[in-house]
Design brief:
With about 350 residues, the protein is mainly alpha-helical. The protein contains 14 helices and four strands. Keywords: Cell membrane, Membrane, Phosphotransferase system, Sugar transport, Transmembrane, Transmembrane helix, Transport.
């Protein structure tokens, strides 16, 4: 039992380390994207930025978000195994967050966390090998990173990503069979899928499904999806404002950044909160997003562009219900967090 507790505490420490190193990239990326997209106009392909300066700022923000997941994965491994785990986990964190393999599967931040843990413990095991002194000097910079990246990477591509890809295909087929009938159920599912991994494969599946329907002139599922993308970051932002005793000063600062990200439809603003307290945050934002999506579908909200948040309000049919659905979904998540998330002092006492 003590060994299990030690492993769990090591993992919690690793996740917190990953989050602390990741946070600056989230803040920088979110603020730059918010400023750049805030000057754009809604077009057929989403928010279109005309100013070259703002395009450059948007690219800087996008770069911050591209670095976010590899840094998370890398420093999870670093916490477990030290420097030799950093490079393999960053590489595989990048791989997890981008399409790879014959099925072009991506697993987002959840896959990156898994890669960070796997690399960390694999490297930790490698460091116990008995090798001659001449080889030991090149172990941390050559042998361990190469072997770790190759072995864990091949396992990810050929073993882990295959069932995930099959599951994503099944989800698309299931959603396609549902359109037309049960609007509220479809809205619930789209909303929940949007929040469950915040930019990961399930979220991307919902996006692909709504884009395919948009091409056929069906815009209601996209309305549900675009309502839902804003709810997780908005919920976390409001929760940090009204339940200040439940969050650290660092969390409350991040809540301000999450607020801007929610307004421009960037779900990833909630990821740091989910990583730090996944068992409370994830259910709260999934339920809130599902409620928002269902309300949007039930009231015929249509989003005419592939982007979300309040920033696209001018190109939404059913503007009032778009805002109401987003607000109610957000408040549902905030209420769940209020009743399930303990104050910091209580959480510290529970750990002791």
């Amino acid at each position: 039992m003590k060994k299990e507790n030690k492993i769990w505490k090591d993992l919690q420490k690793a996740f917190n380390t990953g989050v602390s190193y990741m946070l600056p990239t989230v803040v920088v990326g979110g603020i730059f994207l918010a400023i750049a997209l805030g000057t754009g106009n809604a077009g057929d392909s989403g928010m279109e930025i005309s100013s070259q300066f703002m395009k450059n700022l948007n690219d800087l923000g996008s770069a911050g978000f591209a670095m976010m997941i590899p840094i998370l994965s890398g420093y999870i491994a670093y916490s477990i195994a030290g420097k030799p785990g950093l490079a393999p986990a960053m590489i595989l964190g990048y791989v997890a967050n981008n399409p790879i393999g014959s099925g072009q599967v991506q697993t987002g931040f959840l896959g990156a966390m898994l890669m960070g843990v796997a690399c960390g413990y694999f490297v930790k095991w490698c460091k116990t090998w008995k090798v001659p002194p001449t080889i030991r000097t090149i172990m941390p910079i050559l042998i361990v990173p190469v072997i770790t990246t190759f072995i864990i990477g091949m396992i990810y591509i050929y073993v882990i990503s295959v069932p995930i890809g099959l599951a994503m295909d099944w989800l698309v087929d299931t959603l396609s069979s549902m359109q037309g009938g049960s609007a509220i159920i479809l809205g619930l599912i789209i909303g929940a899928m949007t929040a469950v991994d915040m930019g990961g494969p399930i979220n991307k599946t919902a996006t692909a499904f709504t884009l395919a329907l948009m091409a056929e002139g069906v815009y209601s599922p996209n309305g549900a999806h675009r309502i839902a993308v804003a709810i997780p970051p908005l919920a976390m932002a409001i929760s940090t404002l009204i339940d200040r005793k439940k969050y650290t000063a660092e969390d409350r600062d991040l809540g301000i950044s999450a607020l801007f990200m929610g307004l421009i439809g960037i779900t990833e603003g909630a990821i740091p909160f989910a990583i730090k307290d996944i068992k409370r945050v994830l259910p709260a934002i999934i339920i809130g997003s599902a409620v928002g999506g269902a309300l949007g579908m039930a009231n015929g909200v249509e989003a005419l562009v592939p982007h979300g948040g309040l920033i696209i309000l001018p190109v939404v049919n059913g503007k009032l219900w778009y805002v109401i659905a987003m607000l109610i979904g957000t408040l549902v998540s905030v209420a769940i967090l209020h009743f399930t998330k303990p104050n910091l002092e209580e959480a510290a006492n529970q750990k002791d």
